[in-house]
Amino acid sequence: MPGAVGRTSTFALTNATMPYALRLANMGYQAACKADPGLAAGVDVHKGVLTNKDVAETFGLEYRSWEP
Questions:
Q1: Into how many domains does the chain fold?
Q2: Residue 33, Cβ neighbours under 10 Å: how many?
């Protein structure tokens, strides 16, 4: 239960997400996504267009694939 140990859960979350935030800040989103396929897989919307096929199919929406 993260709320019971707020200080340590904050450290854990920061340690897990900071490398991604730094990569995005230093490289820009397109270069960071090219360098890290896992990061690119997290892009669900790009320039106002839905890019996640599963989300689109679930909600009956159109999508376009996106590759950095």
A1: 1
A2: 22
Burial class (CB in 10 A: 0-12, 13-18, 19+), 51: middle
Check residue 45 and give its pLDDT.
Answer: 94
Q: What is the mean pLDDT of residues 33-48?
A: 93
Q: Which residues have C-beta within 8 Å of that of residue 2, sequence separation ≥ 6?
A: 9
Residue 25 CA to residue 54 CA, distance in Å, equals 28
Instruction: Please give the Cα distance from 12 to 36 (Å, whole number).
Output: 21
**Does 11 reside within a domain?**
yes
The answer as to whether 66 is a domain residue is no
The answer to whether the CB of 43 falls within 8 A of the CB of 20 is no
65 in a structural domain: no
Domain that holds residue 21: 2-59
